[in-house]
Write a structure and sequence with these properties.
42% of the residues lie in helices and 11% in strands.
Amino acid sequence: MEDKYTESDIHIKSPFLEKLENFWFYYKIHTIVVLFIAFVLIVCVAQSCGKENADVKVMYAGRHYFTSEELETVRAELNSVLPKDFDGDGKKYTDVVTYHVMDETQLREYEEEIKNLPKEDQIQIDRTYFTTEAQNFSNYIMTGDCGVFLLDIVQYNRLISLDNQHIVLKPLSDLFDEIPASAVGDYGIKFSETALYKNSTMLKQLPEDTVLCLSRPIKMGSSNDPKIYSRMTEMFLAMAQE
């Protein structure tokens, strides 16, 4: 009796496909991990290529909030006093890091302000957001990634009170032969007394009690590199000019 085969009964197994199936069976997890790492690296490289190289970084932490568009103006204002193109790439560029932080008193005042607005302008305040911002700010200042700080007076005083070993902020006496009249304690300068504040439009929106200060070099961070820390110091002194 003659056997009859339909087209669907005929299967041709490719040696290559057999090897591929065996490889996938034994190395599936490894392959997924490698592909994931490759994806992350590609994304990181793409982001790095699209980002300017910063000559120096300045951090603001306080109750004022800058939009992304406003930060572009802030960056331009900071670039105007940046002493020089430190990395020699032909551009003077200041990176700006911000943390929207308030203490409990400021947060309650903010909530009251929102309540007094017309109903259509009222927003829901997410306290978790402010808690996260405060935690991120506390962690960031110890990384040494940035040395020039603009701090809300509350955050400045809090930082000093927590820094029992005096390891975070650089004393003004180490930076000036004569302490400026605008000094706020031993570590900061009242930013509203500086020429930069007075001549700016966006930075001038910061509260008048904002304090300009410089961190000490932080071990394991960028600021521990003498060359980079010198840049931070030059930028601080340029911003402190009255």
